[in-house]
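Task 17 of the worksheet. Students: predict the tertiary structure of the chain below and write it out as structure tokens. Keep your answer in the requested format; marks are given for formatting as well as content.
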Amino acid sequence: MALGDGIRRDVALIPQAERDRFLAAILKLDTTLSFPDGVTYFDKQEEIHVNGHESGLDVHSGPAFVAWHRALCNKFEELLREADPQLSLHYWDWTTDPRSTAGGRANLFTPAFMGRPDGNAGNPGEPLAGFESSEGGGHDVIWRDVAGTAAKPDGTPDLPSDAEILSHADWVGFEAALHAAHDDTAHSYIGGTISNAHVSFHDPFVFLLHSNLDRLWAMWQAQSGHPERYAAATAYGADAGAPSLNTEVQPWAGGTGLNPWASDPTVQDHSTYKSPSILSPPCYDTLPTNVYIVESENPVDAMSGHAVINFNSVPEGELAIRAAVFHVFGCGDITFEVVGGSGPAAPYAVFPTSATTVTVHHTLTAFRTVRMWFSFRGVIGGAGTAAPPGSVTLRCTNTGQTYVFDLRGDTIARQTVAALLTLDQSASMNDPAGVAGSPPPQRIAVLHEAAAHFVSLVQANNGVGIVRFDHDAYPVNDPTWPGFAVRRITTNDQLDPDRQDALTAVGNHAVNPAGATSIGDGVVMARNVLSALPAGAYDQKAIVVFTDGLENSDAFISAVMGSIDNRTFAIGLGDAYQVSSAALTALTNGTGGYLLLTGLLSAASQDDRFRLSKYFMQILAGVTNSSIILDPTGYIAPGMLLRIPYWVTEADLDTSVVLLNDPSVVRLTLEAPDGTIFDPPAVTAAGGAYGEGGTLRYYKLNLPTPTPSGPAHAGTWHARLQVDDVLLRRLEQQGHAFEISRRMVRSTA
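Model answer:
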């Protein structure tokens, strides 16, 4: 790794070309980059330092001293990168003589870099000649007296070693040692302007000194076995309750009257001393690589001592995906691998099966989260049982450490339903449905649309069947008016052969022109078919009646109430003036079922074409005990992105999103709470499903589902809708004139 990788290094050991760029950036900050008040970026740093003293901040005293200087260094590095995006704020290792060239080190105090070590830092014509000082006493520009005081006989600073400072086990002891090294020796050793705390930030070398101060804090935080040193509640040990550590970090929060303080003076940073931006150290070349298992996601078993990947309560047939999760502190890329021969064995697997190694690249963050994914599929017929335990061993190739994870899974039953569609074929089904058109569509056409949508959306392992009725009801195998025996839909694929057979049966449903209407006969036949199913084959049995409710033949609904329960539903194909609302209310009233009328569908907009479909979605949700959300009526303009929010809880096992639109010119994608976008390939890669057919498109994702930033589960998800402009123009060229409407249904189980 090198220039531009974000790692802070010993400035005496980086390439000369990078030191040249560093000096050029400092000069740019002092001359050409200014805030709106006319103060240069560099001179503003001295104002910030002085303002801290005058405002009573812990700039050079108190427990916030170290953390305040981390904030100052981080902010200065941001400005440095405005001058040159490839640079980092490197450090002077204050256990070394900055003038020494021993061991390949560069002399830092030359006119070509940080200026002269004695007297004025720069003579006329030299780069640092113009860096002024406000200290007085005859010093109008910055000056030095390197090793004039606080030096050992060999010319190095009279400071304790890094190891001595880092040896303190508690924050209070460590902070005191670091503070003393800084105050008593480091500043004094450089001498001159830097030795005066109130004017020291006129000299650019002071940032190399304080970057080293911060490096030592970062190394203390990174000592193995101490993740608590990054946590807000424990990072400052016994000082955690100090008032100065429980405030916003000034002046960047705008509380001391010093503005502007950043390139954009309208932006303030309201971080506190316990915010991640302060407790998360920058990346230094001396930091070790430390790996910690995230026990909140992989709890440690008290008996085995291993972390556990729990696949708890996975519905039969569903694929659950869980991860081994690590927090990695350190610099550089990090790689984990499955140790060969260590597992996992069925029913567990690496997900995807080829992903036996994972590499996470270096980023400018305090730590990186590494996840290695594994899967477990709920065992069909195994509800209420635990799978045999498994294990897998992972190795961090950077450190050689290995980690054993126990794998545990159990299967629960997903509530399944056998839904019998009870379809009216009486002569009145040839009457208009209230849908505008020329000629107006018949009720049978609306029935076909609704029933087909039902079949398209039935989840895997649910069953669907069809019986037909007019003045009589007909068994599923009737030679003249055949229905469809209840058949289990085995997959969520729209091309599932059983689903396709059911769709064909819906399409074959036709009107008997001589038929009267006996809804009671249809309900009794449906109940008999459901009752004949093998015991335990389905958790629930539901009757969904599609009819206009115009009873005119025995048996009437009132005579068959014993066949009606709280899993009986009705769709009235028309509005209250076209159907018998009283009859259909009798069919569902007081049972917990639904009576839903299609309503009078007008030609005002395409939205009305979907009203019956929306009713159908509500019925399906009632049948499967899923929650359902219907979006508001609305329109999508070409070029517009519409994000429809919906909410998922930790208790939800999966999420399904359905789009109904005609014509199919609207693209549907999903957005997880962390911003990850799921399109059809991404959903499939995550173990979910995508399907489409006719005017319907849908996604189904098991929860939690993997994303680059971690498992996506509870929170606000969004259905994202966008017009496919190319397809829209093509249809318009073909003479189609239409409004683009939207309908979205979200269900979670």
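Marker's comment: The chain has four domains: 16-279, 290-412, 415-625, 626-749. The chain has 14 helices and 32 strands.
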